[in-house]
Amino acid sequence: MCFCAIISNVLLYPILERIAIKVSKMEQLSLLDYIEGEEETTTEKPKEIITEYPICDFDSIFNSKSFEETHNQHSMTILGNCIEVMKQMKEKSINMIFADAPYGIGKDFGNDSDKWETVEAYTNWCKQWIDECMRVLTDDGTMYFMTATQHMPYLDIYVAEKYNVLCRIVWTYDSSGVQSKKMYGSLYEPILMINKSSKAKYTFNHKDILVEAKTGAKRKLIDYRKNPPQPYSTEKVPGNVWDFSRVRFKMDEYENHPTQKPEALLERIIKASSNIGDVILDPFSGSFTTSAVANRLGRNAIGIELNPEYFEMGIRRTGIATEYKGKSLAKEKVRKTNAKSKYVRD
Ligand SMILES: C[S@@+](CC[C@H](N)C(=O)[O-])C[C@H]1O[C@@H](n2cnc3c(N)ncnc32)[C@H](O)[C@@H]1O
Fold first, then answer.
1. What's 278's domain CATH number?
2. Position 233 pLDDT exceeds 60
């Protein structure tokens, strides 16, 4: 009897207490808030902003302009098919490219742009925009692109043979949402960093992207291999596995786009691979994360998007205008409740 009481007090009580706290916490939040991860939404840091930087003569980048566009001194948003638009751009006119194309998995971007009959049809289309991107990229420029994990190997082989792969990056994130019970969760997306050739120079501002080195910063270890012994460095250049939270509804940066990429991810890419005043292109702009972050960090931006709704989002998000053709572009957040970001096995 006495033994049972000890067991329940010492072992069971703390467990029951933790469950009770968790349940009451859940009651304060909606179910969606809980699934989206409460903690991750409360730690937004102030964002770096550069306001004074060289302006861009956008007209000098194009041979012709048979598409709808709007721009200010630092940003141009274009409505159109990126392959057609890039064909009108001069070669070697862009310093850095981030291309986050539809992944070939049937995502709803409001325009059937992510529907392909076969993997071959999808990858053949990708090769077209990759080649066009590489044509407009400067000889010392860098391009990053993303696609689905299952499609990246085909494109990796293509660009490794034709151009040069600088780095294979994995963007990983945690998810407390619906997870498979029959397979490991799908919690990463590949990013390929490429340039024109292995002999080409490229920008890599390693000092601008340093992250904490736990050995020095947290564990405060001393490196006794050095004479005299010295504390380990507190900062380091990030590795190729990047852990950034996905964009949550409660975050200021949230936009109504099903595959919006986090500003922190673009910030690392833009700081590392471009300089102040450079021109950055995103051919699949979506919610225009790349342009918004580029402008915030003192880079000029060109963003192309097929969907007129997202194009208008870009006009607002890059600060070009607050209304377009008499329509207010004020931000109204809507939850992506039916936008499963990953295929989940039952
Ligand atoms: C994966 S999303 C990009 C998301 C973006 N990185 C963001 O942070 O919001 C791909 C976008 O490409 C657009 N798109 C699809 N085909 C296109 C094309 N041929 N030219 C331009 N945009 C296209 C889609 O409408 C969609 O918004």
1. 3.40.50.150
2. yes
